[in-house]
Amino acid sequence: MIHIITDTGSDLPKQVMDDLDIIMLPLVVQVNDEEYFDRSTIEPKQLYTYMKEGAAPKTAQVPPSLIKETLESIAKKGESAIYITLSSGISGTYQTAVLMKNEVLEDYPDAKIEIFDSQAASLGYGLMVYEAAKQAKDGKTLDEIIHTLKHYVEHLELIFTVDDLEYLLRGGRISKTAAVMGTLLKIKPVLHMEDGKLFPLEKLRGKKKVLGRMVEIMKERIKTSDPISTIGISHADDVETAQALKELIIEETGNKNILITMIGCAIGAHAGPGTIALFFLNTPLKES
After folding, report:
1. pTM score
2. Architecture of domain 2-26+63-154
3. In the chain, what are the domain boundaries?
């Protein structure tokens, strides 16, 4: 049996995790001098309420002891595991997981454990976890699943926008001058991910224009007319805009295979309420 493990930065809906027996480990959120486990002792909507009231949350990686305990319990049973982590470019969880794996291998040298750096965030690697878990259920081998994950790393696209530039300022993504001017001019940035890190792409005025441009970029980057895998949309407490983006994608591409989810605390703490993100493969999956 191959267990698929991930952390709460993947923003997968609970129903999907339950249906596919995905093991979810919580990232840590610190807000108002309290420490919480993402989606366990604090839910995203509560965090967004705190942020709208002026709180400036911080996040931390999954506790090492929890990673080791999880991997050890699987190794004891002689079963296999793939832990798909939040991008090492924005979190230390991947490096910690590798260390914990090595500790487990000292006691269980024959254990088959893979730690995989998604090089993605939010539902971007949620889609990777989703596909890996489906393949594990279908009886695919460890190598076959890793092949699929590598395809996602090479071909996954992330396009997103934020509602308030203040949160990007706090995270050091933009300058104070850019944040002030952007707010005054009602500028909304379009950002994307390269090599596991976030970078600005374009600046537009008005939410409607931004959504239209996100779909245009998606169409420009998809390199085939063949059907692509599930498209992901994640939102930070703005389901109406997420739904509008979904309808626009269907209208423009005819693709209805779209999964919508709320951005959890681990990612939302940095992006802020109102963030909208779009994830898709620019090349469809091929059989290994």
Report:
1. 0.90
2. 3-Layer(aba) Sandwich (3.40)
3. 2-26+63-154, 156-281
In SS3 terms, the chain reads as CEEEEEEHHHCCCHHHHHHCCCEEECCEEEECCEEEEECCCECHHHHHHHHHCCCCCEEECCCHHHHHHHHHHHHHCCCEEEEEECCCCCCCHHHHHHHHHHHHHHHCCCCCEEEEECCCCCHHHHHHHHHHHHHHHCCCCHHHHHHHHHHHHHHEEEEEECCCHHHHHHCCCCCHHHHHHHHHCCEEEEEEEECCEEEEEEEEECHHHHHHHHHHHHHHHCCCCCCCCCEEEEECCCHHHHHHHHHHHHHHHCCCCEEEEECCHHHHHHHCCCCEEEEEECCCCCCC
156-281 fold = Hypothetical Protein Tm841; Chain: A;domain 3 (3.30.1180)
- Where residue 56 falls (left for φ over 0; alpha for ψ -120 to 50; beta otherwise) is beta
Instruction: Please give the residue that has the higher pLDDT: either 165 or 241.
Output: 241
Tell me the per-residue pLDDT of 15-56, one tens digit each, with 9 for 90 and over: 999 999 999 999 999 999 999 999 999 999 999 999 989 898
pLDDT in tens, 131-148: 999 999 999 999 999 999
